[in-house]
Write a structure and sequence with these properties.
mainly alpha, Fumarate Reductase Cytochrome B subunit, two-stranded antiparallel sheet
Length: 226
């Protein structure tokens, strides 16, 4: 018998605001990574009158704009975790208090190590995915936002300097903050690449839809077993 039902059971998991945030956030991270790389490694300067060339200005503007989108998006996503469905909260609240969650985490680790025959079904994030998203994306993005706005306000004053000026001394000064912010970019880039790989892998090998669920919101079961 085929492992895909003719009329598969399904459950609505990701609401429209969550899906919109996911794809807008992904685009913002791509822009931030590309413009951040160019800020750290500026292209060769063009010849001619300086007033006619504003390349780095455009690059920095793109970086700052994407940074605002990332920050506002994460704040909006946190709000939706409060008012959305139960699956909207999983990004910020891994169920570490639940013994069954730890059992599920261990089972997922064994499956990724090819030590069990198949994974379990999960309507929302599986425990390993939920923990990874919290540790890598949520905490990583918070660090990048705080350090980024601290660097943004350096020497310019304004609200970012008033709110985040304390961050630079805490990180060891401006140069150290730049280095850590740059390393944070690679941290998120590596996470994003692994995230894409795992989403595609899970779409084909797990017992439910994964990547397509972030498009239409529906989690579709591939078999009728518990």
């Amino acid at each position: 018998m085929s492992n895909v039902l003719s009329v598969p059971d399904r459950i609505y998991v990701y609401e429209i605001p969550v899906r919109l945030w996911h794809w807008i956030n992904a685009a913002a991270i791509v822009v931030l990574a590309l413009t951040g790389w160019l800020i750290a490694h500026p292209p060769v300067a063009a010849g001619g009158e300086a007033s006619e060339h504003f390349l780095m200005g455009y690059i920095r503007f793109g970086h700052f704009s994407a940074g605002y989108i990332l920050a506002v998006g994460l704040i909006g996503r946190a709000y939706w975790a409060l008012v959305g469905n139960r699956y909207a909260r999983e990004l910020f609240l891994p169920a570490v208090h639940d013994p069954h969650w730890w059992q599920g985490l261990w089972h997922e680790l064994l499956w990724y190590l090819f030590l069990v025959a198949e994974p379990r079904k999960h309507a929302g994030h599986n425990p390993l995915a939920g923990l990874t998203l919290f540790l890598c994306y949520v905490l990583g993005s918070l660090f990048m936002m705080v350090s980024g706005f601290a660097l943004y306000g350096e020497g310019a004053g304004g609200w970012s300097a008033a709110l985040f000026g304390w961050v630079l001394p805490l990180l060891g000064g401006s140069q150290q903050a730049h280095s850590l912010h740059h390393l944070g970019m690679w941290y998120l880039v590596v996470f994003s690449l692994v995230h894409v790989y795992v989403a595609i892998r899970e779409q084909h090998l797990s017992r439910q839809s994964v990547a397509s669920t972030m498009v239409d919101g529906w989690r579709v079961w591939k078999d009728d077993r518990p």
